[in-house]
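Notebook, student rotation project (T.W.).
Task set for the rotation: take a protein with a known small-molecule partner, predict the structure of the complex, and write up what can be learned from the model alone. Partner molecule chosen: magnesium ion. Sequence and SMILES entered below by T.W., checked by me.
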Amino acid sequence: MLNLYFRGDDILENDNACVIVVEGLTKKYGDLVAVKEINFCVRQGEIFGFLGPNGAGKTSTVRMLCGLTKITSGKAKIYGYDVVQNHKNVKRIIGVVPESSNLYWDLTCLDNLLFCGEMFGVPREERLSRAIKLLKSFGLWDKRNVKFKNLSKGLKRRLTIAAALIHNPKILFMDEPTAGLDVFSKRMLWNKILKLKENGVTIFLTTHNVREAFEICDRIVIINKGRIVALGRPWELKRAFSPKGIVEAIFHPRNPKVEEISRLRGVIGVVEEKGLLKIITYDAVSVLEEIAKLAKSRRLDIYLLNVRGLDAEELFMKIVGDS
Ligand SMILES: Nc1ncnc2c1ncn2[C@@H]1O[C@H](COP(=O)(O)OP(=O)(O)OP(=O)(O)O)[C@@H](O)[C@H]1O
Ligand SMILES: [Mg+2]
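Predicted structure of the complex:
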């Protein structure tokens, strides 16, 4: 396993900037260990990305932190409050956008927001004005009198997020908020998340949109099979892989066989996609030399030759694959 867990950067219980502190958190469903002794802290005002493949333990973690499922062992504190013992205090501070919506299907958009406001103790005189503001800012004003069940998938998602913000939470947990959204709605949501951050809200985000997460998150955890396999700022994760690059090449009139390329000095792996050879290497210089030699000896031209680092998705797959 690659050691990408920047531990020194983390677990600072006495660091005032930490608003979520998680220690040894574990979740078992019968014999299945869904989350195994994870540790991390989330700093005030950051966008904290919690990434991992299907079944990695993301939702289980979010649900434990939000008091929606029992913690098997370990502990977690939010703004110093134990999430189990001081659940009432925690509930007031956090907003939750669950994987599947928690809103009432037969209530209108407006009534859903007003109801959530009541549930979260928003004073009566503030409820309506906050609901109106949220409907407008999420582009749902025209739909205020439409029942939740009659909204499209994307609009349901938007209202679910708006509802999570009705009580002005300091921390917003979002479990795959972009699932099922079109590119426009996704873009809007990413912008909304950045806006919330500007307003001082801390965001805990799980998503399968790895590229976007690497763009907007301040720090990222990658979890696999219940264990944290990487934690750091996006550039730290990328830098940790910087020795590893990809050499892209196209030969003319044809590429040598993939097996042949894979035997060259410095090559870790090769794939050929639509005529483009992608050569993974720790040593790009050697690969470039070897490719030049090969082209010369075979009397081939080099039509394209390019060296680049791993992009966010390749990095994610690499980290998860290695772990
Ligand atoms: N209520 C449950 N009872 C039994 N097993 C569960 C339950 N909830 C989750 N699991 C199992 O725990 C593991 C982690 O699930 P979890 O939902 O936390 O993953 P995830 O990272 O959110 O995945 P996804 O990306 O698919 O949403 C999986 O193996 C899952 O099948
Ligand atoms: Mg999930």
